[in-house]
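RECORD TYPE: inverse folding
INPUT: structure tokens
STRUCTURE:
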């Protein structure tokens, strides 16, 4: 895995609003509803509208449909589009779990959709996952008839190795020097090794240090 030097330009550190926080699992590695959450949280799709999810191209097929937590058949989700997510990921070293840096990669995703032929009743919770009795990866709630929502844009995210997870270090064998800085990297990072910060204005760039520091 290549460690990308994002600090060669201050613009290289800018990310769009709405990306996920660093050091959480990448949503693009799984499934996520393609409809934006409502003001109270959770995702609601009107009963008369297509139910759509983003599905990472790393996941096996076929997919399983879940209705109120139970795997069901008869609701054929089909691929209707594809996209690519650019990911700025915070990763820890495979030789020193306390030493972290940034990498950048991409994940292809499919848009899968079920257009109601036999609609799910309002109030149902519909999920998508892997067959075999597993829990769904992502869920939406079916709501009353309404105007169909547009897909929420999902083209960029900030994420990383889940903290505390066994064998979570996905970076290469890079090391930190005696000052806690990544050696021979130059990655765009936060000082002190804290969780990554979404930068939405040039004025916020002063809080970013030039190298990733060793975690305490």
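DESIGNED SEQUENCE:
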């Amino acid at each position: 895995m290549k460690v990308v030097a994002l600090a060669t330009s201050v613009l290289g550190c800018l990310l769009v609003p709405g990306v996920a926080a660093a050091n959480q699992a990448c949503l693009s590695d799984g499934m996520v509803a393609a409809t934006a959450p409502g003001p109270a949280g959770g995702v609601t799709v009107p009963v008369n509208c297509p139910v759509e999810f983003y599905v990472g191209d790393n996941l096996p097929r076929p997919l399983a449909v879940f209705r109120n937590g139970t795997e069901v058949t008869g609701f054929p989700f089909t691929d209707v589009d594809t996209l690519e997510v650019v990911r700025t990921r915070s990763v820890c070293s495979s030789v020193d779990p306390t030493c972290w840096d940034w990498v950048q990669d991409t994940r292809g995703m499919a848009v899968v959709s079920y257009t109601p032929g036999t609609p799910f009743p309002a109030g149902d919770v519909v999920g998508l996952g892997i067959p075999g009795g597993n829990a769904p990866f992502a869920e939406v709630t079916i709501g009353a008839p309404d105007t169909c929502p547009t897909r929420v844009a999902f083209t960029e995210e900030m994420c990383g190795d889940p903290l505390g997870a066994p064998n979570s270090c996905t970076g290469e064998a890079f090391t930190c020097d005696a000052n806690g800085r990544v050696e021979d990297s130059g990655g765009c990072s936060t000082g002190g090794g804290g969780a990554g910060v979404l930068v939405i204005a040039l004025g916020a760039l002063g809080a970013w240090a030039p190298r990733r520091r060793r975690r305490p």
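NOTES: Residues 1-20, 186-213 have pLDDT under 50 and may be disordered.
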